[in-house]
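Budget justification aside, the reviewers requested a transparent look at the raw inputs and outputs of the sequence design task funded under Objective 1. We therefore reproduce one unedited record. The lines immediately below are the structure tokens for a 85-residue chain.
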């Protein structure tokens, strides 16, 4: 899969997105919003599939690295086909 990194605006916000269809952002994908002007940097973004992604965040202030995992599952309101995927 190809990772999608979207520059949200001129204020230094980047959106790391695992959505396989960027035009269908309301129904699928996991995302992380990172302020590039803060004391953290995103050093690694990996998407496992449309529902699971990881990102490595490095703090410039504490010199520590945190690995975050984002995931979601369809809700009961999703149709049966989406829920079984």
């Amino acid at each position: 899969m190809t990772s999608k990194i979207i520059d949200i605006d001129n204020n230094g916000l980047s959106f790391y997105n695992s959505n396989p269809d960027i035009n269908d952002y309301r129904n699928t994908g996991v995302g992380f919003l990172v302020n590039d002007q803060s004391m953290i940097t995103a050093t690694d973004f990996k998407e496992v599939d449309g529902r699971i992604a990881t990102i490595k965040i490095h703090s410039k202030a504490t010199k520590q690295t945190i690995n975050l995992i984002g995931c979601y599952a369809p809700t009961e309101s999703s149709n049966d086909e989406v829920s079984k995927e």
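The mean pLDDT is 77. The first strand starts at residue 4 and ends at 7. Computational costs for records of this kind are itemized in the attached budget.
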